[in-house]
Amino acid sequence: MWPQNKENEMQWVLLSLISAFLLGFYDIFKKRTVVGNAIIPVLFYSTLISGLIFLPLIITSHFSPGWYDGAFWKQFYVEPLTARQHLLVFGKTALILVSWMFSYSAMKNLPITVVGPVNQLRPAISLLLLFAIFQERLTWMQWLGVVLALVSFYLMNRSGKLEGIHFKTNKWVYMLLGSAVLVALSGVYDKFLLSGESISPTTIQAWYTVYDFLMMAIMYFAIWRPKRSEQPFEWRGGIVLMALFVSIADVIYLSGLNHKAAVIVLIPLILYGVRLLVSFAYGVIFFKEKNIRSKIVPLLMVIAALVFMCI
Fold this sequence. Notes:
This protein has helices at 11-34, 39-63, 83-109, 112-119, 122-133, 140-161, 171-196, 201-224, 238-257, 267-285, 292-310. The protein has one domain (6-310). The protein is mainly α.
C-alpha cells in the first residue's frame, strides 16, 4: 500500500497479486485449522481477531475523522451509515456466515486439491446471476468460460471417484457448491451496496467484521458451548494466521481496487487464479494429496475459464 502516482500505474496488479497469495495461504491455514477440530469456535476466535483489527478504524473514523483527510488515508475512512444501511450490511454478513459454515465443513472433509478447483465455480455462478438478475449481456467468451468451468467440475468429479468421493452423493461437495452459490450471491449483493447504496468498500468490510463476530458469538455460546464435549475444540495458531491473512488481504485488495489505473475486470482473475494455484500447490507438496495427475486437466481448465470470463 503505497501512495498512488504516475510512476506506479501498474501498482494495482502487484497489490492484487499480494492479496491473492495471502488468500491462498488463508485457505491453507483454514484447512490445517478445521481438520479434526470444532468449526464454530474456530470461526468465533477468527472473527474476534478480525473484528479487533477493524474496530480501531470505526472508532477513529467516528471520533477523529480528520485523520482521514489525506488522499491515501481516505480509503480507510469508515463512513457513518443509516439504520437501513446497517441492516443491509447485516444481511450481507448473514449470507457470508452461512457460506462459511458450508465451506469450512467441506474443507474439513475434502482434499484441498478438490476444494480449490470446485470453489472456482464462483465466477461462473456470479456471471449467471448477473445475467439472470441484472439482465447483463454476456459475451461469447464469457459464456465459453462458464462452459469450461462446468466441464472442469465434471472432470473433477471423475478424479474424485478415484479417492472415493462421489460428487452426486457426497454431502460435503453439496455444501461446497452451496457455499459457492452464496458467495456468488454475496458478490451481487456487494454490487448493490457499492452502486445502489454508495457505501465505500472499507465501510462495508469494517461493519461486516463487527456483525460477523456478533453472530458467531451467539452461535458459540448458544450452540457450541452446551455441547462442547461432543465437539472438542483445540486452539491452533492457524486461527490467528487465518484472521490476519484474510484481514490484510482485504485491506490490500481495497487499496488495489481504489487505484485509478486498476482494470476492475482483471482483479477477479488475479485473485481466483493465484489463490487456486497457491492452495493446490501446497496440497500437492505438503499435504501429499493423491491422484494429482487426474486433477491437472480440470485445474488448467479452471484457469482458462477464469481468463475467458474476465475478458
